[in-house]
Amino acid sequence: MNAFQQIFTDCKPLCKSQVDLSAAFWFNRDVVCTKPEEDFFTMNQTSKFSVRDICYAGLFAAVIAVMAQISIPMPLGVPMTMQTFAITLAAVVLGSKLSAIATLVYLLLGAVGVPVLANFSGGIDKFVGPTGGFLISFPIMAYIIGLGVEHRDAFKGAFPVAVVVGTVVNYIVGVILFVIVAHSTVSVAVSACVLPFIPTAIIKAVLACVLGLNIRKRIPGVKKA
């Protein structure tokens, strides 16, 4: 084995790439290790969201917008909507990151004035009103529940705990902003924002989880945990 062959032997396992031997022999040039083209594209695809992921995020942003229009007015100004059902459904189907992105897309559309919020409303004022806390905490809620579904097999009980924690965070942020904006006491805020919604919240969470897990098993591109 000559010196060049020894260099090539040492280089090949390190770079794991294509080497032009003819150029090195005939022109006595340095051996250049180049990454195969397919490896480059594979690396890019794994580091970015795919077109399918973007479509799923857009689809569930639309689902949230549609479900938000199912709204029942309540006496103290906080309507009962199907938004939390849609948020939980998106989290269960898409997982943590993608569902949070879908929720952010929905909120951004609402913030710029697209009538996707409850009662076909929109505008930045909705985020600083009495119900603004519920809106701005939706991505956090989706991310927490998504984490639970992703780790439900590794950690027993992670999924139901994540659903409860995500819902509680949504209520806590909603109550805090309600107290600030409406200049009310915590007890009044809890009576307006939490107590009337507990029974329906449980029903919506159970339905969203059952439906979401079934959808998750059937759509392509979602990790089956």
From TrEMBL:
Keywords: Membrane, Transmembrane, Transmembrane helix. It comes from the Bacteria. One of its GO terms (cellular component) is plasma membrane. The chain crosses the membrane at residues 53-70, 101-121, 127-149, 161-182, 188-215. The keyword Membrane applies. InterPro entries: BioY. The keyword Transmembrane helix applies. Pfam families: BioY. GO terms for molecular function: biotin transmembrane transporter activity. Gene3D superfamilies: 1.10.1760.20. Belongs to the BioY family. This is BioY family protein. It comes from Faecalibacterium duncaniae (strain DSM 17677 / JCM 31915 / A2-165) (Faecalibacterium prausnitzii).
